[in-house]
Amino acid sequence: MLSGPEVTMTDRKDPTRSRKCPGAGNGREGHAPRRASKMAEVGEVTEGCRLPVLRRNQDNEDEWPLAEILSVKDISGRKLFYVHYIDFNKRLDEWVTHDRLDLKKIQFPKKEAKTPTKNGLPGSRPGSPEREVRKTLDLSLQPASTPASGKTLPIPVQITLRFNLPKEREAVPGEPDQPLSSSSCVQPNHRTTKRKVEVVSPATPVPASTETTQASVFPQNGSARRAVAAQPGRKRKSNCLGTDEDSQDSSDGIPSAPRMTGSLVSDRSHDDIITRMKNIECIELGRHRLKPWYFSPYPQELTTLPVLYLCEFCLKYVKSLKCLQRHLTKCDLRHPPGNEIYRKGTISFFEIDGRKNKSYSQNLCLLAKCFLDHKTLYYDTDPFLFYVMTEYDCKGFHIVGYFSKEKESTEDYNVACILTLPPYQRRGYGKLLIEFSYELSKVEGKTGTPEKPLSDLGLLSYRSYWSQTILEILMNLKSETGERPQITINEISEITSIKKEDVISTLQYLNLINYYKGQYILTLSEDIVDGHERAMLKRILRIDSKCLHFTPKDWSKRGKW
């Protein structure tokens, strides 16, 4: 999980006003709304019920979003209800008291005829109607790697960068007097120069499968801009929630053979009421106390504790502070196990082999699962390498974040899971992790891409990193011969180690590509240039390749495992 803006709850109308409750009377099956004239009793509220719940948003204002009751418990005669706010991230789920429930607008679950379980799994119950519909849609999505047969997309290969001076505008053969668009228009009184990147070789077609879709990498929203001049026959796939085809687990959830691939994509096929609820109240890690966002399969006897204590160096979990203090007298680690391959200032990176350091790797995965909901946790860590970023002080090397990658990836993944711990988020460490993963790819001589789907915060960080890295190259292009400097998409990919599909999708997301008279023209507007310069001033933490001491291994030889 990476640094990014805090979760923003969308504003909703007060349910006390005259309106129709979400999910009520709109054709959704599974919940029968009770008439508002008759208030339900607290004892009637059971698992599966939906009703508005009072909460405070980020503006410290009261709101009543619709929520689903996932669990009910009784503590000393006081009932508590675990609620999931519909259409919002699961990390906002919480336990609430009955005085925060709007019992006038309760929606009772529809009674099931016979089958109280789902998929034949014990301990499961039928999911909510919206959840089942979404699962059906998710399973029907095409994988990102599936090629679109018969579809080709003419993607520019060679581009040139041209500077248009405000006073002496360079003449282009065949260019009309009117500008292509408002973003490429140059006014004489502008204080800065306008920059154009022009594609001069549109003849090389690229299969549509090479385009990582904007829907999968950059989901469309109200603020996103569409790419200009979409070509006929272009096929845009959506696969941000695709199923995991690399998993070698059997249908009953028991591994049929040792895993030789490392895909961690969660297919949600075994998601039940237990894993939908947070099971750890609080984690103490060094000088920080963390409130988990999601379920993590720690031992059952530890889930009832008010605080779970972790050693910040070996990540071993214990049940009490006294046990932790006793453990610290015997634990001689002051840094993650493995090799330190990077150090600059107080920042260090350690490379950890999942086969040689299984205990640490498993504990790291358990901790990371508290903040990653879209990945599956395996205790078989052999196929993975873990790169842990730490911050050094007089007491030792304190974990800040990490990313894992497969030793052998058939999909060119250079990241499987990536996470910045909450106390260190919004401080630039997320981009530093991403930059380090691509620095390793440069040493390996490969291009890489993160394993999809990305979390919401991870998506924001990758989108920002790709944009800044590509814009930095385009703005620094210079020509030694006095002609327009030229660069190709493949060259951008080789320089940055960013996969070509991610380069293309980033240019489309930034709305830099314009199609004109058989050529693709990339236009850098003043807003984009100014925004990029401001962002780079804030980006203080950077990876210094001179401080990296890393030798890649050939993991195809099983002897090195």
From TrEMBL:
Its EC number is 2.3.1.48. It is found in: Nucleus. It catalyses: (S)-lactoyl-CoA + L-lysyl-[protein] = N(6)-[(S)-lactoyl]-L-lysyl-[protein] + CoA + H(+); 2-hydroxyisobutanoyl-CoA + L-lysyl-[protein] = N(6)-(2-hydroxyisobutanoyl)-L-lysyl-[protein] + CoA + H(+); (2E)-butenoyl-CoA + L-lysyl-[protein] = N(6)-(2E)-butenoyl-L-lysyl-[protein] + CoA + H(+); L-lysyl-[histone] + acetyl-CoA = N(6)-acetyl-L-lysyl-[histone] + CoA + H(+). Residues 275-552 form the MYST-type HAT domain. GO terms for biological process: cellular response to oxygen-containing compound; double-strand break repair via homologous recombination; positive regulation of DNA-templated transcription. GO terms for molecular function: chromatin binding; histone H4K16 acetyltransferase activity; zinc ion binding. Its main location: nucleus. Residues 1-43, 109-133, 170-268 are annotated as: Disordered. The active site is at E451 (proton donor/acceptor). InterPro entries: Acyl_CoA_acyltransferase, Chromo-like_dom_sf, Chromo/chromo_shadow_dom, HAT_MYST-type, MYST_HAT, Tudor-knot, WH-like_DNA-bd_sf, Zf-MYST. The keyword Zinc-finger applies. GO terms for cellular component: NuA4 histone acetyltransferase complex; nuclear lumen. The keyword Zinc applies. Residues 179-190, 207-223 have a biased composition (Polar residues). It comes from the Eukaryota. Keywords: Acetylation, Acyltransferase, DNA damage, DNA repair, Metal-binding, Nucleus, Transcription, Transcription regulation, Transferase, Zinc, Zinc-finger. PANTHER family: HISTONE ACETYLTRANSFERASE, HISTONE ACETYLTRANSFERASE KAT5. Belongs to the MYST (SAS/MOZ) family. This is Histone acetyltransferase KAT5. It comes from Mauremys mutica.
